[in-house]
User: Fold these one by one.
Assistant:
Number 1:
Amino acid sequence: MIYDFRKGHSAQYFSKLLTINYDFDVEEITLSREQLQQDEIGYFKRTKNNGMVRLGAFLPQYKDITYASTPALHIYQCETTEEKGFKMQIANSSRNNYWSRDRSKHVQAELQICKVCAKHLRNHYKISMGTNTFNNFILALEESSRTKQTLVDSSGYIINWRQVSHCFRDLKRFTCEKCGYKANNEQHYKYLHTHHISGVKTDNQRSNLQCLCVKCHSEVDDHHQKKFALEGLSQLLEFEQIRANIN
Ligand SMILES: [Zn+2]
Ligand SMILES: [Zn+2]
Ligand SMILES: [Zn+2]
């Protein structure tokens, strides 16, 4: 589905959604720069239940209709963000929509993080993202003792867990690392989970994470089997129904 951000209504609607009922299926909102919160690392927004989501900002309208290059995604207020007078669009995940200058064409792309912003992370926190994508940015933060999130919620997950999990599964293209099941639409993303290999929920280094479908996740060990039998049975059945329909 393509949303038209040229009209103010949808922008308001999405910013409201993001505050009240945060969900990663909603990938974009429009906020003015002033509404963003910022810490030493970059932009962020608080969500309900004291959750946190990191954001990037980009100019959604781009002059080159050939899309030879895409708008840069800024994760920090760097010196190249000269578009201050314009309304930047805010992103909470990797793939984003932007418009041609005359707003007649629309494209979705994975935006690359601005080189100056990336340099800031490297110099101040010794963080190297590998390729400069938003997914890698979010995940790389969890791999440095200086930037990893230490606040946890009542279930023991870090307060930005939803975003970390989303970015990790997106990096794995929503494909189960054990059986190869791939979610082919956003409604099925929920059947892929992010599993902590060591069992430690606060260790969110990529080497400790695994993208597993609900079935493979439920079979990891005795503890998971019991847990899924108690709380995850309906999703497991739903998933098996979907797989049966595909085959
Ligand atoms: Zn920048
Ligand atoms: Zn699987
Ligand atoms: Zn698990």
Number 2:
Amino acid sequence: MPHQPIMFQKPFKAEGSQGFRQNLSELLANQQSGLTLQQPFYNSPEIYRLEVENLLMNRWHCVGHVSSIPKAGDYFLFEFDSESVIVVRGENGEVHAHANVCRHRGSRICSKQSGHANGGVLVCPYHAWVYKLDGSLRNARMMPPEFDSGSHGLKPVNVEVAEGLIFLNLSDEPREFSVVAEMLSATAGKFGWGDAKVIHEERYSIDANWKLALENQVECYHCGPSHPEFSRVHSQGRPNTEQITEQTRAARGEHGIDISPIDKWAERETRGEEAVFVERHGMFNNALTASDGGQPVAPLMGNASGYDGLFTIMYVGQLNHFLAYSDYGAIFRYTPRSVTQTDFHVTWLVRGDAKEGVDFDKEKVTWLWRITAAADKRIVEENQIGVNSRFYTPGPYADPIEAKTQRFIDWYLSEMSLAAQA
Ligand code: FES
Ligand SMILES: [Fe+2]
């Protein structure tokens, strides 16, 4: 019997006589609906650059929770692509965000991921220009008398706080944020996230393109094989998820958290606004929360009157996902760092007045999502290695269990078509 011919991926030429945009237009025209993306979308540095500038730069990123910088001068860094931003608590309790770029000769000012600005100032390590927490330049050594310190403050980055969550936008033309604030008020607000506290953070550096990480994040086809611990208490990986969710709702009832359907995610009409999406699901196997055994691991959050065995998933833009269980919350943030490098940041929240060792055991609260996130890093990295192969060709998504991944890809392709024409 003759062998099947091997169909190798046609090499993608970023440069050449036709130019990048035309080659990209041809690639987009060749992309088949219902199949995974062609290889260059996952590993071409030129395509990645276009994505960052045209699809991602004007989005809002959830960079953390206010409880992680309680005192004036507390700061942490947010790193996106090759950019770095200092997020710092100001003298009057406000949250500032400044580009981590000195206005003298451009040095990075803070290099530690988090810390405290001693004496209430940020000092550039190179020639010791001194900035106040609000970003204004306080002192620049040995500069001539005509030097105007008033026009040499740190460049501000757009910052918003909603339900205790800090959001940044690195663009001059940020998308409308009010839709995010409204959605979070109806969801995270009901769980008291504004008064919650961070108990743990993990950063997973994933050697894969950001879209592979996102494709994985929004489907649960992989949950059964890859996340046995998760699948014992969540129903998403099962074929009749909707039915299970309805049964759970009927059996347990709501507990005063009324969430009207919100779906403005990956839709064209949301252009100009940030994209938001909310789902509410039932837990599985009589679990009340996402823990080993499904039993509560922390005090109830917000105005919940009991553990109802339901949980809420919120999406902001493409890169920020949030999970609200009755007793704890989890913030998931993906930040592209290069074409095949993505940071995956997970933050755990509990009730603000809960005491460690008395009301909760940190290991128990974080156990399930530490295991699950580490598995996700591993499977997404294996995915990238396979996609880089000359034997890779686009494969079919399963329907309907990978429907949200398809929806994400459809959104991506429509945005890239616009970018290719721009
Ligand atoms: S580069 Fe910052 S003080 Fe010179
Ligand atoms: Fe996963």
